[in-house]
Each structure stands twice: as structure tokens, then as C-alpha cells.
Amino acid sequence: MPSAGAAVILDVDGTLVDSNEAHARAWVDAFAEHGITVAFDAVRRAIGMGGDKLMPDVSGVDESSELGTQISKRRGEIFKSAWLPALRPFPRARDLVKRFADDGFTLAVASSAKKEELHPLLEIAGVSDLITLRTSSDDAEESKPDPDIVQAALQRTGCDRHAAVMVGDTPYDVEAARRAGIQVVGFECGGWSRGDLQGANEVYASPSDLLDRYERSVFARLRPAAAAAGPPRA
Fold it and tell me: What CATH number has the domain spanning 20-86?
């Protein structure tokens, strides 16, 4: 049975870490190495989906095919070697996640990243010690905007869907959360506009912007009663 607690389910790429463009560059380069030219802008706007959705969307290649498997593997190698070491978190990303933890929320990750990439990204964000419940593209049959990853993360929190909020940066996060039946807060720092994130309960520019307006956000209203009963914070 779901617990009486409340949960925050977090995306990582474009939400806590400034990595969306790096992912897009790695995909473009991997396709190019296999003789396929794809438009960067098309790939960039598909970031946030898993490879199972992105590859056919931008190239017509099925990820499960022999060619698709080769491209996907090479994309991971390029991302890890050429882009991952230079990635940085968005300002105050750890502060925001710690605020969630301090307020008593159960924290989980619902990311379209591959499992082997997720831990390094959480390390870069500075939150790997704060979030132990993690779901990646390896934990779901279908990636975002299908709700599978979000539903898996919600199940791991043990919380009711009515007491859960997802935080993400793409329309795919918004759709996945809505289809999972939970509230969703959008960030524009991943490159999507407020209009693109239509359907989100609230939209903020970044982790820092949410922190500045935290006491007027859905999180202040939803946080577990024990935390809410403490001294008020600005």
C-alpha cells in the first residue's frame, strides 16, 4: 500500500545538469560515423526521449536493429569520452534537492539516460548522496513520453500518485508525468520555453528560480506535515 508520505521524482538531464546539448552533439556525431546525416535541431528537440523514440524520430533507424544498436553504443562512447567530463550542474541544483530532502520528501530519479550514465550525472549534479531511488531507460519497456519510467519511480517511493510531483525540463517529462497521474513542475533551463511546457502545474526558469519562490510553490503545499510544522523559512 502507498505510504502517507510525499515524493519528488526528478529528471536529471536539462533539469539538474546542463547536458541536453551534449547529448544531442553525441547523437549527431554517432549517426555521422555510420553515414547518416541528421539535423542537429531535430535531435536537440528530441532529447528527453529515450533512444527507442529518438532514433526512429530523427533518422528512421530502429534502435533494436543491428545498425541502431551500433549507433546507440557509439553515442554512449562519444558522450562519455567527449562530453561528460565537461558537464556542469545548474546553479543551486544540490541546494534544491537538499531542500526537498530536508522537507521530508521521498526522492527518486526518473531519467531517460542509460543506467551506466545516470550515476556520473548524479555525481556531477552533486546529489548522488541524496537520491537512492533511481530508474533509468533500462527499467522500463517504453521511454518518455510514455509513463513507464515515471510509474516505476513512483512505485519505488511507496507514495500515492496524488502526493507526488515530477520535476523535468521537456514536454516529454510533462506528458509522462500527466499520463502517470502525478503533478509536474517544469524548468526552462533545459532549452524549452514555458509554452513548450504547457500542461505543467508550475514552470520555473531553473532550480535557483524555484528555490527563490519555494514557499509559494506546490512543494510548500505538499511537503509532509512534520516538516511543514517546523519554523517557517524564507
Answer: 1.10.150
